[in-house]
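Q: Convert this sequence to structure tokens.
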Amino acid sequence: MAQLIFRNLAHDIVWALLALSASLAILAPSIASLSGDFEFVRGASSVLLITILPSVAVWSVFWFTGRRPRAPRALYYQAVATSLSMATLYVVDRSSGVLGSEIRLVVLGLGVFAGLKSAEFLFAKYRRVIPGVLKRVLIVGDGPLAEQMEEFMHANRESYVMLGRVRCTSTVFPPAEEEGGQEEAPDRIGRLLRLAQNFGADKVVVALAERRGFFPVEELLNCKMAGIEVVDAPSFYESATQKLLIENISPSWFIFSHGFKVNWMLRLCKRVFDLSAASVGLICLSPLLPLIALAIKLDTPGPTLFRQVRVGRGDRPFVLMKFRTMREDAEAGTGAVWSQKDDPRITMVGNFLRRSRMDEIPQLLNILKGDMSLVGPRPERPEFVSELKEVIPYYSERHYVKPGLTGWAQVLYPYGSTVDDAIEKLRYDMYYIKNISIILDIYIVLKTFKVVLLGKGR
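A:
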């Protein structure tokens, strides 16, 4: 969601520049008195700053509340906030006249910006009835995968228009010999294309769970050559959700897809980033360490630090360190079990440490040692890894990179304690490994700060 907000803020800055240009053009005759001195620069800067402030306020609310910004509502709030700002400045200037000579430029800039956001709001609200605005998708296939794609389309009606689903069988697309030979081939291979063109499809999603059977190569090639985008269901799901549909991905998809470029240069850059961030983190947080240790000691008896074996890169075990958040005998009678939400074994101080993520501070030492990275899939216990490998496809592939203090799954998926939660987190982890980069690491770190500030850690 943060990426969406940043993109919208950049979009609003462009609108603010347009509002400034329009204001300067409209007030050109009266702007001459401001040119040649500092007032002109101050006036132009004021337009850019004050115009963008309502948008920053609106997007900040979405950011800190964690609510996904639905386009019509967000644009409506921006238009209202900008209009109120314009009206307030106008009233203050007319009643007191203390705001300076450039206030007309600012008020007009706010007015133009409010008009642009109002037009965006109307467009977003009624875009479903405007031809060519939303992506119109036609699904080719049948079975569970096609049904899953259809459910996804219905759940994301703000971005896609589900045109229908074409069952992929030899009855629907019969081979050439069943239709009288090669002279009828052009008609035969044009069925899917004609259907896509009649419905105005922008994209054809191929949702075939098993490709060793019938596959309409000629039909799909016809659509591709006619300018209609053809994409398989896993790739479409990845671009739409920023996670991988691992249960419906074949090994060949991993082999031939782009990404998964964990080369020596990336490892070197990540290591430098890890060492720098861990060192700065330990220095900045060092005053808190004795206070946290004292609080743990006063809360319940037992050691301050908790050491536990986890699985790292290459399936190699290592000892992870963290501040103790549970009773010392938490697993005395049960053995290794999943940590639950509102787990009764968690102490009062431990609950605070988990929500604030302060219990993870000692893992900065694991990062300095080289067992972990700042960003990566969270390391699991060997007992759970053995169980998850049996039921989750490609689970071992998450161990091709170092585990992380934070990760893509941690900032996008809530706390989980079941196999289904592990599957969902693996989807995010595999997306991270596929698209791994320093820029993505920095983005995840910034998003982690937001999670910590909102107390959503576990």
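The CA atoms of residues 36 and 445 lie 45 Å apart.
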